[in-house]
Amino acid sequence: MKLKTFGSQDVQGKKVLVRVDFNVPFKNGKVKDDARIRAHSGTIGKLLDAGAKVALVSHFGRPDGKVVPEMSLGQIAADVEKAYGKKVRFVDDCVGGKVEAALSALSEGEVLLLENSRFYAEEQKNDAAFAGKMAKPFDAFVMDAFSASHRADVTTNGLFSLLPSFAGDVLIKEGEMLGAVCESPAKPYVLILGGAKVSDKIAVVGNLLDKVSTIIIGGGMAYTFLRAQGYATGKSLCEENRLDFAGETLKKAEQKGVKILLPLDNVVAEGLEATETVTVDTAAMPGDKMGLDIGPETAKLFSDALVGAKSILWNGPMGVFENKLFAAGSMAVGESVVKATEAGAISVIGGGDTASAVRQFGIDGKVSWVSTGGGASLEYCEGKKLPGMAPLEVK
């Protein structure tokens, strides 16, 4: 997807509002992962270099339209300043006179951080009057929060009709990379699906089944497919109401010549808190245990399927990777994705838990792109038009 971007002439000397995503992990008064903050550095740098006055707006947590001090963006102003190497001035509102005064007082090279937009209930209602108040002090709007682009809020959608609007670097890159694997992928194209639920991936499978060469299925969702094939799955996750879908998908894939690969062996335990594991063949799943990772035979099967791939989309881990006892499968697949990337494949990690996994394994910089949005990337891969992107699309 190609999006409308800005040039220096569009923003020079102008007051520009940028929708960023600063909804970062925050605990005990500290930002635990500033990746989302750092992601916007390119966009903000370009705006400042062009001589724009820059204000940043974001949500933070779920205050439900109320002022919640524990969810104030003022708490992360120092982290934003550190990430960008610029003086950041915080204002405790996102609309009205305080914002106008702070903009007027902003010095060259400084950045203004506005208060949590979700302190106002009107934000998530995409309220037109609230959008007008927010737009009033500004000359232009830049949407750069891909991870919130599937929401039709004031700050992700309602400002497009009120201000000259452009896509920032993050949004542009997401459109390019997700477009490469969802719209016109080079073949062989391997889709890797994992995570807990088949329900979360139904629309993705429906949208991409005609485009893929191979679908690898691991994680908890694999057991619904295995049950549909007649295997016992013990205490493993299984969506009984999705067995028909799983069976139909297997038949459709066979008719279309698409390979679907499922686990041959599994790392099983009594539960998530277990300290001991056993590896068993899929045909020998114990009734009192649950599958929590793919086994080594499956890891090799999945890795071999990635050799020679030209396009790879990975959405969902192969197991409960947060626990080192159940991380080996996801790590093996990740390393194989890296090898395929080094051999020339375009590899896209679909955000969310998968992004967390590749960061945990230290391979996030070795793939083509790690999406900044879990839910947004999922909806993009389902073929939906995202309200925070579609208005900026260049036909």
Can you offer a commentary on this structure?
This protein has 395 residues and is α/β, with parallel strands linked by helices. The protein has helices spanning 8-11, 35-39, 41-49, 77-84, 97-105, 128-135, 154-158, 169-182, 202-208, 222-228, 243-256, 296-306, 328-342, 352-361, 374-381, and strands at 15-19, 26-27, 30-31, 53-57, 88-90, 111-113, 140-143, 165-167, 189-193, 214-217, 259-261, 265-269, 278-281, 290-294, 311-315, 346-349, 369-370. The protein has 15 helices and 17 strands. The strands form four sheets. A six-stranded parallel sheet has the order 5-6-4-1-7-8. Strands 11-10-9-15-16-17 form a six-stranded parallel sheet, with helices on both faces. The longest helix has 15 residues, at 328-342. The protein is elongated. The model has no long low-confidence stretch (mean pLDDT 96).
